[in-house]
TrEMBL record:
Keywords: Oxidoreductase. Residues 8-240 form the NAD-dependent epimerase/dehydratase domain. Gene3D superfamilies: NAD(P)-binding Rossmann-like Domain. This is NAD-dependent epimerase/dehydratase domain-containing protein. InterPro entries: Epimerase_deHydtase (IPR001509), NAD(P)-bd_dom_sf (IPR036291), NAD(P)_dehydrat-like (IPR050425). The keyword Oxidoreductase applies. One of its GO terms (molecular function) is oxidoreductase activity, acting on the CH-OH group of donors, NAD or NADP as acceptor. It comes from Stephania japonica.
Length: 313
């Protein structure tokens, strides 16, 4: 798998993770159909500036609830990277309508369109499961949906779990080749102008510090490493089902992905690159807080983060 003249589709192309994936695919010679919700929105303009975008990137307007729009984007593609999802936010008025339905029904729409278009493989981005702290997490671990419903008002974990579950049900019923990739907290520089939820978290940690933090194992992965993992699992026919990927760590097994050859960068690199990027974008003021102080603060905070990456396939 992975003939580099292929046409592949990336949903939610203008988002944080998807932008890095589109960049990587274009660099490797793929032709990319990217879906965005608004073709004229400036927040997607960075995609047009990526190397090879002029010749090889075509954008399509498609909401996840717009089946016809998705089918148009997916038609003619040999594979689909389903990345789009409303990511955890505290400002939702109606989580069922704004988060859960688009994630679950939208994923089903993507999978149905993939079946109709007869794509060879679908790689979807899910999320690491909620799992007891004292137990090793591996590819057999799924979040308890009922528990998810009780732990966040916004329903993000529930939406991701149910969407991934439904995707595998569809794949099984229709003989579709599906691999799901479950990252932990994603950090690293941004290509898009708009902050996403996970980088905003790192920015807030770095800029404002925190008075208290939960004594828990946090896990993080670099956005560029996730893009490489997505392409790797697409290209390796032996990649099947779910895989968890991991950096340095304990309670998290990603043996399956590492056996495919996935490598990840050091936590320090991700933090330094993130902070440099925050400076470049004017999000951190060197005059107010010295760089040394910021790095120290970020490293101290990130010491609490178990550097891990999660991909399930
Ligand atoms: N960031 C993390 O720490 C993290 C961790 C684990 C898993 N993930 C997963 O990784 C994927 C990408 O996350 P991200 O951090 O890159 O988020 P992001 O920057 O917020 O990107 C999300 C993308 O999904 C699109 N989208 C949202 N709702 C949509 C809908 N109803 N129809 C069509 N497109 C829709 C957004 O489009 P608009 O710009 O138009 O809203 C945006 O392009 C998601 O599946 C997320 O669940 C992320």
């Amino acid at each position: 798998m992975g003939d580099e003249n292929e046409i592949v589709c990336v949903t939610g192309a203008g988002g944080y993770q998807a932008s890095w994936l589109v960049k990587l695919l274009l660099l490797r010679g793929y032709k990319v159909h990217g879906t965005v919700r608004d073709l004229s929105d400036e927040k997607n303009a960075h995609l047009k500036t990526l190397e090879n975008a002029a010749e090889n990137l075509q954008l399509f307007k498609a909401d996840l609830l717009d089946f016809d729009g998705l089918l148009k984007a997916i038609d003619g593609c040999s594979s689909v990277f389903h990345v789009a999802c409303h990511v955890l936010s505290t400002t939702l008025q109606n989580p069922q309508v704004e988060m859960i339905r688009p994630a679950v029904e939208g994923t089903c729409n993507v999978l149905k369109a993939c079946s109709i278009a007869k794509v060879k493989r679908v790689v979807m981005v899910s999320s690491i499961p909620h799992w007891p702290k004292d137990q090793v997490m591996d590819e057999k671990c799924w979040s308890d949906k009922e528990f998810c419903k009780t732990c966040e008002i916004e329903g993000y974990s529930y939406a991701k779990t149910e969407a991934e579950f439904q995707a595998f049900e569809h794949a099984k019923a229709h003989g579709l080749d599906l691999v799901s990739v479950c990252p932990s907290l994603i950090i690293g520089p941004l290509l898009q102008p708009k902050m996403n939820t996970s980088t905003l978290l790192l920015l807030n940690f770095t800029r404002d510090g925190v008075e208290a933090i939960e004594n828990n194992d946090w896990m993080a992965v670099d956005v560029r490493d996730v893009a490489e993992a997505l392409l790797l699992v697409y290209k390796k026919p032996e990649a099947q089902g779910r895989i968890l990927e991991q950096g340095v760590i304990c309670k998290f097994s990603s043996e399956k992905l590492q056996k495919l050859g996935w490598r990840y960068r050091a936590l320090e690199t991700s933090i330094v690159d993130s902070i440099e990027d925050f400076y470049e974008k004017g999000l951190l003021d060197k005059i107010l807080i010295s760089p040394a102080c910021l790095y120290a603060r970020a490293f101290w905070l990130m010491k609490l983060i178990t550097y891990t990456s999660a991909v399930s396939l």
